[in-house]
């Protein structure tokens, strides 16, 4: 049974997950395997997002996919035959693993025919929202933000201050050109969150040159947006990279007086969008895995020691 908005713990019914990208940084793997299905230890990134959305209390995952990325949705299917075979062999733990994705949340797909940008992708999700949904959550599956309660904190800020709330994290000045960057001002807050963690956003700019960046606080792939974002998305023009940018629609709303705040994330973040972030994420999760952790720890230490000895020898022989 569908819940009405009031009964949802954080007011969020639908989480939008843009997953239509080509995954060029993971070629050749992504010739046949969508980036969102690459595993962190044994679980695809998209299932980790589904888990976070379910933990927030959402009931629907609106997955924006490209026409040739049907496997992403298949991951949320039932797999009855596989479950029966595993059950007949007494592999109950594996049955749970197979069934988990479909039990976490109801996934629905929205097809983005052309890669016109993140803003365009998010805009397509309007078609699957119910009329009573006045807030839309967006989670970018490239970003793992841990622990998984950051959206709940953002929902609390939205409840206290209204408007839209985004998650931010601090990067070095050389890294800002990869992100949406915030122009912020401090605010007094009675929120139960520490005041240093909540700031008002005066403006937002997508992937600026470091010299033009208004701060080093950047968007971390978690958004709690007022429904009027769809109206703003219809009014923006192509921006950075010739694409329709979500950042530009948020900036438009700010300039027209819509309140936007950030919650500065103090936990961990992994970037699953490229191998240099994906491999550390696997190491981090792998080290903590109850079954594989000890072996991974031993192997990782050995690999590092060998690597350092090699580099040392090379440095001496040069
Ligand atoms: C997107 C957003 C950017 C945000 C980033 C977070 O960029 O456009 O504003 O900071 O995600 O990962 P992308 O990494 O998809 O280029």
Automatic annotation (TrEMBL):
The answer to whether keyword Metal-binding applies is no
Keyword Plastid assigned: no
Q: Which SUPFAM superfamilies match?
A: Nucleotide-diphospho-sugar transferases
> What name is this protein filed under?
UTP--glucose-1-phosphate uridylyltransferase
The superkingdom listed in its UniProt entry is Bacteria
Tell me its EC number(s), please.
2.7.7.9
What does the UniProt keyword field contain?
Nucleotidyltransferase, Transferase
Residues forming the Nucleotidyl transferase domain are 16-283
Q: Which family does it belong to?
A: Belongs to the UDPGP type 2 family.
Pfam families, per database record: NTP_transferase
Q: Which GO terms describe its molecular function?
A: UTP:glucose-1-phosphate uridylyltransferase activity
Task: Name the catalysed reactions.
Answer: alpha-D-glucose 1-phosphate + UTP + H(+) = UDP-alpha-D-glucose + diphosphate
